[in-house]
Amino acid sequence: MPSFQTVRGMRDLLAEEAEVLNFVMSKARETAKLYGYREVITPVVEPYELLSAKAGEEIRSRMFTFKDLGNRTVALRPEFTASIARLATGALKNEPKPLRTLAVGSVYRYDEPQRGRYREFYQSDYEIVGVSNPEADAEIILLTDRLMRAVGLRNYAFKVGHIGVIRGILSQENVDEKTQNAILQLMDKREFEKAFQLVKSVACLSTLRGLLTLKSDNAFDTVGRLRKHVEGYPNASASVEDLQKILKIVTEHQCPIATVEPTFSRGLEYYTGMIFEVYIPELDIALGGGGRYDRLIEAFGGEPTPATGVAHGLDRIVMAMRMQKTTPTTQNKKRVAVIPAKEEVKGEALRISQMLREAGVSVELEVMGRKMNKALEDADRRRIDFAVIVGERELEQGSVVLRDLAKREQAVVTISNLAKRINPEY
Question: I want to staple 419 with a disulfide (CB 3.0 to 4.6 A). Which of 78, 290, 331, 359 is the partner?
Answer without folding.
Answer: 359
